[in-house]
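Hi U.,

Before I forget, here's the chain from the pilot set. I'm dumping it here mostly so it's searchable later in email.
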Amino acid sequence: MLGPEANPVVGDLARVIRESNDFGRQERAMDALAYIGPAGLPALMEAVTNKALAARGHAAYSIHVLGEAARPAVPLLIAHLQDPDVVGGAAAALGELKLEPASVLPALVANLQQPNYLIRIGGAFGLRLFGGQARSAVPALLNALGDTNIFVRQEATNALLAIDPHVLENLRKQ
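Structure:
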């Protein structure tokens, strides 16, 4: 509600994230930082990289609230697409933001080839959020329809429906 007027409490919220053992309290502090605006971004980025925090994925996802002001975090989010503890939040944030597709889309497609199924799901989910902008990912998503994990197959199907539903219609006709 206060937005940038709450800038003076950024340090206090960052301290809550670092020092609290309460997952819910950490998440609320992360959400507050995101809604404060750009002044909260450094603390959110720090939280994403703090391996001692259980809520790292939430920190990554919270970044999407910043919109265009989140651009400095895009490389950090891409780097954490390979982290099973963060991938869901990072992929969701990147998909919601739709910033720098030339860098983000190949990184999300690369996730579809990773051994960890959570990372594969994150890749498909992020691509789904890009919608039609992710048409270049259709071949990789078609391959993912044959994944050994049902949840990866499900998310690949959902991504294809969001990106180009005609592809699935054509598959059914074959």
